[in-house]
Design a protein that fits this description.
- There is one protein chain.
- This protein has about 170 residues and is α+β, with helices and mostly antiparallel strands.
- It has a domain at about 110-165: Head domain of nucleotide exchange factor GrpE (Nucleotide Exchange Factor Grpe, Chain A, domain 2, Roll).
- About 60% of the residues lie in helices and about 20% in strands.
- The chain has three helices and six strands.
- The protein has helices spanning about 5-75, 75-85, 90-105, and strands spanning about 110, 125-130, 140-150, 150-155, 155-160, 160-165.
- A three-stranded antiparallel beta sheet has the order 1-4-5. Strands 2-6-3 form a three-stranded mixed beta sheet, with no helix packed on it.
- α2 runs antiparallel to α3 (about 90-105).
- The protein is rod-shaped, with a radius of gyration of 39 Å.
- The termini are far apart.
């Protein structure tokens, strides 16, 4: 090979090496940009997933609150049915049981406090009787009569019962 051919070959090799370095540099820049976009996409996906979960939770909570308001609004109707049931049990029982059954499906439960220890978180004592001599002064007050039913809704007191206590 001649000197001139060797010079051209060296120049070509240098040009090729420079082009390879430039392509490698461009490739690294593109990979960094790709990684940046991938990170942004992952963050947006996580933000959207969190948003979707938050909206679903808020919707569930709002439905629960609305259901509770409906159940609370129907308590006077339930009281009227209960009072009518005392007067005319045979005629009112199907209606009363149907209404109570539907409200149970929504999470409403009647509190059974009769002959149980008095709990001020569940009931309001409006009539007090003295304790029997045998039970002693230190005895815990007992609910002897429920004057107005109390209800819980999904585990929390919706309306406290009105009761008569002894002790």
């Amino acid at each position: 090979m001649t000197d001139e051919a060797e010079e051209i070959a060296v120049e070509d090799a240098a040009a090729v090496e420079a082009a390879v370095l430039e392509v490698e540099s461009d490739l690294e820049a593109l990979m960094a940009e790709r990684d940046s976009y991938k990170d942004i996409a992952q963050r947006l996906q996580a933000d959207f997933d969190n948003y979707r979960k938050r909206v679903a939770t808020q919707l569930t909570d709002e439905v629960q609150r609305a259901t509770g308001r409906v159940a609370e609004a129907l308590l006077p109707v339930l009281d009227a049915c209960e009072a009518a049931f005392v007067q005319h049990p045979a005629e009112v029982e199907p209606i009363f049981n149907s209404l109570l059954g539907e409200l149970r499906k929504l999470g409403l439960e009647a509190m059974n406090l009769h002959e149980k220890p008095f709990d001020p978180a569940l009931a309001e004592a409006v009539v007090h009787e003295a304790a029997d001599d045998e039970s002693g002064d230190g005895a815990e007050p007992i609910v002897t009569e429920v004057l107005r039913s109390g209800y819980t809704w999904n585990g929390r007191v919706l309306r406290a019962a009105v009761v008569k206590v002894k002790g």
